[in-house]
Amino acid sequence: MMETTLKEGLISLGLSLPQERQETLCAFARAMVRQNEVMNLTAITEDTQVARLHLLDSLTVLCCADLAGKTLIDVGCGAGFPGVPLSIACPDAKITLLDSLGKRVKWLEQTLPQLGIQAECVTARAEEAVQTRRESYDFATSRAVARLNILLELTAPYVKVGGAVLAMKGAAAREELAECAGAIKKLGLKLEEVREFPVDGTAHAVIVLRKIAPTPKQYPRRYAKIKQSPL
After folding, report:
1. Alpha-carbon torsion, ordered 203, 8, 24, 15, to 10 deg
2. Does 162 have pLDDT greater than 90?
3. How confident is the model at residue 45 (pLDDT cuts 50, 70, 90)?
4. Residue 161: how many CB atoms within 10 A of its CB?
5. Which end of the chain is more exposed for a tag (fewer CB within 10 A), N or C?
6. E strands, the chain, in order
7. What's the predicted TM-score (pTM) here?
């Protein structure tokens, strides 16, 4: 069922992937579901739901950005979404998976090579890792990490001028965007588009924010400060 749902979903997104990459996507998803029995990775374990809400949802990013030959960091990657499906779909992209939870990252480090998936895995908090990675990526993406006015301060500093933040959001995407006018300006970003995708009956969106100026050095602040007073 997972393979069929994935295949049909790719067609509806207008995406084309070789059969072997589709098989690798499903193999990774099944590895995650198995690991979920001993580690809290996901509440979604049924085949068709995993295909829709993890694999296809992650791949909506490809409808908004050409990753070929580019660098992308997935900030707060959790069990590897959207970064791992993007790495499978675009093997010539350089993907970094960043998460603060060491055991999740260790599982990714062990699992990805077994499936022939290439990605750099980093255990660190987003506001700390940026010290050595500031403005060094074409794209930063994130899914289900924080409200947009917090998320942008954690992701924008990673992106080169000319690159973009690709923020994955649910039904509240436009509401969260409305809170962010100040943050967008202060961080050197400009709203380019909001692409909406119906995923399993609810609206999912990718918010594309272009980096038009360097992010001031004082950002990101400490996470407690960001959360306490979002930009």
Report:
1. -70
2. yes
3. low
4. 12
5. N
6. 71-75, 94-99, 120-123, 137-143, 159-169, 189-199, 202-211
7. 0.95
